[in-house]
Amino acid sequence: MATSWQLSGSYFENCSCDVVCPCLLSTNAQLTSKPTRGVCDVGLVFHIDKGNFGDVRLDGLSVAMVAHTPGPMADGNWTAAAYIDERADDRQTEALGAIFTGAAGGPMALLAPMIGTNLGAKKVPISYRIDGKKRSAEIAGIMKMAVEPLPTMREDGQMWAATGHPINPDWLALAMGAEGSTFSDHDMSWDNSRRNGHYAPINWTGQQ
After folding, report:
1. In sequence order, what DSSP letters do the residues of 135-157 get, joined into one string?
2. Rounded to whole angstroms, how far apart are CA atoms 184 and 195?
3. Minimal CA–CA distance to 123: which of 63, 205, 188?
4. Segments in 37-159 forming alpha helices (H)
5. Which of 54, 123, 134, 189 is such that its CA lies 20 to 30 A from the CA of 177?
6. What sign results for the dihedral spanned by CA atoms 15, 171, 120, 147?
């Protein structure tokens, strides 16, 4: 019998491209442009305010994902790794794994086929904060990442686009990495300070 799931919360990402990343905004088909630095190193962090996978509650848990792409994203051959909130019990860990690998359908199922090397998942403490329009997260000794909105003349202080991004097709804020946005693990290391960023609310559903 299929297991239905849903989650709502927020996410942000910070990649190594110059602002604004051509993967989403360019004259080419989305994901087909060459990253501005030739390759793309990206981190994404998700926080679930409320969610369930069948009868498994997911409220308050966080997940982080990182990927290296050797060229245009649509060409695939990504190297990817995941980090799951250490507070998740075995059933929650299994549920989060199903959702964030795309095995349970939903937005991540659109990205999963592009991963060529899966480095697996680690259970770690993940701190996630929203401070006004700034989003930040930290995994001790591995990741310290934050994004803030690009300057804009809009009264609400946010510039956004309906880009079709799988995570939120209709509302994606244009942002940049704050100073000190770094990652180091799995023989990958980068500093994406003042590089491209995004953030958005998430509201996903699916079934496995």
Report:
1. EEEEETTTEEEEEEEPP-SSTTS
2. 17
3. 63
4. 90-100, 108-111
5. 123
6. positive
pLDDT in tens, 62-97: 999 999 999 999 999 999 999 999 999 999 999 999
pLDDT at 208: 84
184 Cα distance to chain centroid: 16
Strand, helix or coil at 200? Answer: strand
**C-alpha closest to that of 71 among 123, 116, 120:** 116
For residue 49, give the 3-state DSSP assignment. strand
The answer to pTM > 0.90 is: yes
Determine the average pLDDT of the residues in 16-45.
Answer: 96
The backbone torsions φ and ψ at residue 12, rounded to the nearest 5 degrees and listed phi first, read -150, 160
Question: Is residue 74 classed as helix, strand or coil in its secondary structure?
Answer: helix
Q: What tens digit of pLDDT does each residue of 2-13 get?
A: 899 999 999 999
